Amino acid sequence: MNGIRAVERKGAWEEFLRSYPADIICLQETKAEIGQLSDELQNVPGYFPYFSSSKGRKGYSGVAIYTKVKPQLVRFGIDEPGHDDEGRVVVAHFENFVLLNVYFPNGGGGPVRLEYKLKFYDDFLAYIDRLAKEGKQVIFTGDVNTAHEAIDLARPKENEKNTGFLPIEREWIDEVIAHGYVDVFRHFNPSLDGVYTYWDMKTFARERNVGWRIDYFFLSKKIATSIQAVEILSEKYGSDHCPITINIKEIV
């Protein structure tokens, strides 16, 4: 998103809560510390809120979870100080699954930042694999900042050498799937094209639907069978990204 405070000023946050009173809401790129949030953002009736923000740069990164069911445990980050200081992950442990809300790094800005993004990718996958080895069922969602296949962006040929669609970035998503995590939107819609979650606002790309699908829900295979519906709400405005939702039956 363009920052949770900007979304609130536009009225999009209140409208979203009215239209989609979800059990759990995950936000990425909130760009705010808790003290900068209004009371309405800090205290949403019926929800337990959890926020993580960048320790080094104000107005940068940040994630939040609002949940109607109080988690058994909440952690901030993936036990890697170099990553966790950027405020990119909230991990919520529930009775039957672990939810990770993640704002993955963007690889733009040169080789150093791309290297950091790939390191974050590898460390994150190692972290969720440890959870899986402990018998946890994993759900992770957020802005992955990479389109997986050509079907996932409007102009794949023109972006073959651009971060967000580099082979080395896409190969990481291949690896995630090989480790047993399911991209549930693509699972239900294997050949559906023209459906994206992000559009460049500077070029009015949304009006032309020149977009990228870079926001995902990945689930452990066992609980992926519990998914009843998955939607990309491309008609919902308020950010350069749009919301994505899943409807999941009770996990046992």
Description of the structure:
The protein is 28% helix and 24% strand. With 252 residues, the chain is an alpha+beta fold. It has one domain: Deoxyribonuclease I, Chain A. It has a 6-stranded mixed β-sheet with strand order 4-5-6-7-11-8. A hairpin with a 4-residue loop joins strand 5 (89-93) and strand 6 (98-103). The chain is globular. It starts with a helix and ends with a strand. The mean pLDDT is 93.
Give helix % range: 25-40%
- CATH class annotation: Alpha Beta
Oligomer: single chain
Write down the overall geometry: globular
- Please tally the helical runs, counting DSSP H or I stretches of 4 or more residues: 9
* Low-confidence blocks of residues: none
How many separate structural domains? 1
Based on the coordinates given, report the CATH architecture. 4-Layer Sandwich
Strand order of the largest sheet: 4-5-6-7-11-8
CATH fold category name: Deoxyribonuclease I, Chain A
CATH homologous superfamily descriptor: Endonuclease/exonuclease/phosphatase
Question: How is this structure best summarized?
Answer:
With 252 residues, the protein is α+β, with helices and mostly antiparallel strands. It is 28% helix and 24% strand.
Topology:
Blueprint (H helix, E strand, L loop, with lengths): L3 H6 L2 H8 L4 E5 L10 H4 L5 E5 L10 E5 L5 E4 L4 H4 L4 E5 L4 E6 L7 H23 L4 E6 L23 H12 L2 E3 H5 L9 E2 L5 H4 L2 E2 L2 E6 H4 L2 E6 L11 E5 L4
Parallel strand pairs: 6-7
Antiparallel strand pairs: 1-3, 2-3, 4-5, 5-6, 7-11, 8-11, 9-10, 12-13
Helix pairs in contact: 5-6
